[in-house]
Amino acid sequence: MLKQLVMSAFQLQVIAVVCLSSASAVAETLTVSDAWARATPPGKRMTAAYATLQNSGRQPLVIIGAASSIAGATSIHETRIDRDRATMSPVQRLTIEAGERVTLQPGGLHIMLMHLKEGLSEGQNIDICLELENNDSYCSAFAVARNGIASHHQH
Ligand SMILES: [Cu+2]
Three-state SS for 56? Predict the structure, then answer.
């Protein structure tokens, strides 16, 4: 049992290293669009990022985490409204079925960026990597904006 725990810690490190390389087989099936992160007010060191994730492959894609060099901690969260109160909870596995798309948007699923090294201002671009269950990762640029970016999808 202990051996298994040590092993999974090792695998997490491997995921972090893979994230640094841009070559990825996932790039063929995962498309990240309308990617943006919310600009931070002065002094605030946490924010959220949003995007549309499309799986054009034949297998489900399972996202098990996220990483960004600009944040001390990055994870997938979901906001839920519970008795008029919004609460956020971590999402350990986000499955995108074959041919489906999942939208990360304010009030729902989002990428939580915590312990930011610097504030984010409009016009900046940041890199966020999505970590997949198969040890692959997919990195893309997110535009920093105050209230979202115009969607390419008009339908
Ligand atoms: Cu959150």
Answer: coil
Q: Which domains does the chain possess?
A: 30-145 (2.60.40.1890)
What letter would DSSP give residue 18? Answer: H
Greater confidence (14 vs 121) lies with: 121
What CA–CA distance (Å, rounded) separates 47 from 101? 23
Q: Which residues contact 92 (CB under 8 A, 6 or more apart)?
A: 64
**pTM of this structure:** 0.79
Question: Ligand 1: distance of its center to the CA of 106 in Å?
Answer: 10
- Using one digit for the tens of pLDDT, what is the confidence trace for 124-142? 999 999 999 988 999 999 9
Given a cut of 50, is residue 89 above it in pLDDT?
A: yes
Residues bordering ligand 1, an ion, CB closer than 5 Å: 77, 88, 112
Cβ atoms < 10 Å from Cβ of 91 = 17
